[in-house]
Amino acid sequence: MARQKVLEAAACIAGEEGISGLTLERVANRAGISKGGLLYHFGTKEEVLAGLVDSLIEEFEAEIRARIETGSSYPEAYVEAAFDHASRERNLFSGLLAAIATDRGMASRLRDRYDDWLKQLEASGLTPARARVVSLAADGLYFTEMIAVAPKSPAERNALKSEILALIR
């Protein structure tokens, strides 16, 4: 519980103030725990940022698994999870950007998982090119919404999701 509070606090700070505002003291205060309590879970700022990357990946993969359990194919679950995750994880995404900007090694964590996700799209029966188009379309929407570059209305989002899902079927 305290670990999750720390990650939520760090994501909020990174989202509101950028990486320069992210200090262990500020994260501890925002999380409502002592600095010693924070240090029990994360010894450094870099460990907090790595935790943000891992948390984002874990949440996304949990959403995919939950959809598969209810009968969606992997590609459908991937697209649905990308669309749903994008609509509610802006602060966590800000933390992810901060982590990657701070330590390029953290980008490799995400890159490794992304490669696995792409392989799973291909293993589901999509051609490699179609798997790449589906992932780029879903992820493109995800990233543009996270950085608020091209906001979409609910109707536009639904139309885009329908088009991407049509590529799968």
What report would you give on this structure?
The protein has 169 residues and is mainly alpha-helical. The protein has a single domain (2-168), classed as Tetracycline Repressor, domain 2, CATH 1.10.357.10. It has helices at 2-17, 24-31, 35-41, 45-69, 74-86, 90-102, 104-123, 128-146, 154-168. Helix 1 (2-17) packs across helix 2, helix 4 crosses helix 6 and helix 7 (104-123) crosses helix 8.
Task: Give the amount of beta strand, in percent.
Answer: under 5%
Major sheet description: none
Compute the number of strand runs.
0
- CATH 4th-level superfamily: Tetracycline Repressor, domain 2
Per CATH, the architecture is Orthogonal Bundle
Note poorly predicted spans: none
- Distance linking N and C termini: 40 Å
What coarse outline follows from CA principal-axis ratios? elongated
Q: What is the residue-mean pLDDT, rounded to a whole number?
A: 85
SSE order, one letter for each helix or strand: HHHHHHHHH
Question: From the helix content, strand content and strand pairing, which structural class follows?
Answer: mainly alpha
